[in-house]
Amino acid sequence: MDNNERLSVLIRKWFNKHRRKTLKNNQSQPQPHLQIPDMDYYFITGRIKEKYGGMTKSLLLRAKLFGLKNISSHFLTFSYDPEFSRKVKGIIDKQIVNPKMTKIQNMYVDFLIPNSKPEEQYHPSYHPDNINEVVIDHEDPSVRFIRNEQTNQIEMIEFFHQNQQMEKREEYNTQGQLHKVSYFSQETGKVYQELFIYEHTYIYMKKEYVHLEEESKNKLKEMIWYAQEGIKTFKNEKALRQEWLMTIQYKNDRKKLFLVDSRKQDKYVFQLKKRSSSYFSAIIHSKHYETEKTALRSDYNELFTQIRKQKVDAVFFITEEQKTDVVKQFGHQNIFFLTPHTLDRSSHQVQDHYMADPHKVLMMARLTKIKNVIDAIRSFQFVIKEVPSARLEIFGSGPQEKQLKQEIKKLNLEKNVFLKGFTQKPDVEFRTARMSISTSVFEGCPLSIMESIVNNCPVITYNYDYGASTLVKNEFNGFVVEQYEVKQLANKIIELLKNDEQHQIFSENCQEIAEIYSIPNYYENWITALHKMIEVREKRDQIQRMMKPIHFKLVDISSKHHVLSLDLQIEGVIEKRKKVILELVGYDRDNHAELFSKKVENLKVSFPIGHAFIKAALKRNKTKYVDFYMRMRDEEFNEITQRLPIAEHLLNEKGVSKVDGVSYKTIKGNYSWKLNK
């Protein structure tokens, strides 16, 4: 680097430092008009994993930041987890959340056990406070002790009949306490009963199973909870989870926001009967489509079904790109809001990045197919030919660890590529890396990239949905390469390893991107979205009350020159002073896409059934069925919808109508199309 280049770098460093200081001063100014709405907040997911990833991190940070604004929140988990209390203690000990402001709760630990009144006791074969203090007789063939490979603690004790078939299994947590007993059928070898236990002996719940011979598996028959007010039975896990949610809803009359972070939990919340004081919402953390953007992922079906039923008050997106894609596919919705992630900058003491190890390339990812770590490994067979001293350090754990180790050995990369396991200090790794890389198949918004840029660590990433090209601006704070182009990835790694000046510029530019995701901006996005959610709900409720006595019906259908004409009938009167826009909307039954809409004039609507726009929409979505709804909205697009029923005398023939070849009456008597393929 010559003198002019050095001077250029110094000037740029001074300018960026001065600009960041100005931005920080501006952001630190108090903004008293911005307040998070005063309500009870419930953030919902299934479980807390031992080594949790980006979704749980973002949920915990949301809870922490809300707490800093004196807004308390509850982190709800449903799944049975004997290690739940230990995990929560670990989170609190690390000061990830303030326990005075955030209650991390589990359905079993914080609802079932405290509200139970056991009628039965279980008498374990060994009854110490800690099973690991027992002196074990290893000679008894009817008992087998199963220990944890790492800690050597007893996890299970299995008891056998004389014929060596299992009779029962006792399970113990890491504190050595009995928490569950399973009984096995001698006929099938399957579990037929589970006892859930606290304080070594008290049975607070049972699960009974029935064996399905034809499927060779067990099915839950019922769950029996010994509640304080008497025995309660539930047919499935859903009913039990909704019991807890209903208890929370009726805890008091305060407004409550139920925010679902995990798509697997959507049905438990959105199928619940909602109180007027409750708001149901979802935040999207991952890609919503399969290989094509018109094909909705199966785990998103419940959410978009309930959006169509207007059970959802808000959907929060963490990238503008995904929000735009969803609007293109499903139509404009006033309940869609943008709330990007942030990082807790207090834990990121950013330093000048020229102290980084010049040979270290970092990857922070779970070892799963979605993270596509194998491409990063394969890229290094090309990297080391140009830069033999380069190292790829991969931090994370997961089911692909064995496969990735084999790939490293196969490519003779043992001296250059290292699987380092899970790290509790990702910031230290980012600060000492020359760059980080991301090769995911898809993401919601990659927190690992955010962690990298906040630590001034340039990023080379595949161009995947969503967030990669938002966080990494090509040739500004890193490189964006075409997905699955391993050699292109390798070339960019080589380029950044060799070019000190380019690395310096990228490193400095990281802060400009990081400022966009600052905590003040995070608060502003959430405050704006939450207040708008409340406003939209009020306006929707007004339209709902006004339209409740109004009912539409399809009374005539005709087709001429490929133009379909529908005549409607209305029951009730819409007040003229109320400005309501009526539209007929066709939705794809399978992926919930809004295919087309047409304004209703004088209770008539016509549209060219063979129009190129309609044909294109049907082809693009591979539509088999179109379901029609009446949409009633105001000029601000606050809307409600209701299915369009058909008059009794109309469309009673079997199959589709001869009038247009597509119209038919559903079993429930509503208007739909069935398309010939």
Automatic annotation (TrEMBL):
Residues 42-227 form the Glycosyl transferase domain. This is Glycosyltransferase. SUPFAM superfamilies: UDP-Glycosyltransferase/glycogen phosphorylase (SSF53756). GO terms for molecular function: glycosyltransferase activity. Residues 357-511 form the Glycosyl transferase family domain. It comes from the Bacteria. Pfam families: Glyco_trans_A_1, Glycos_transf_1. InterPro entries: Glyco_trans_1, Glyco_trans_A_1.
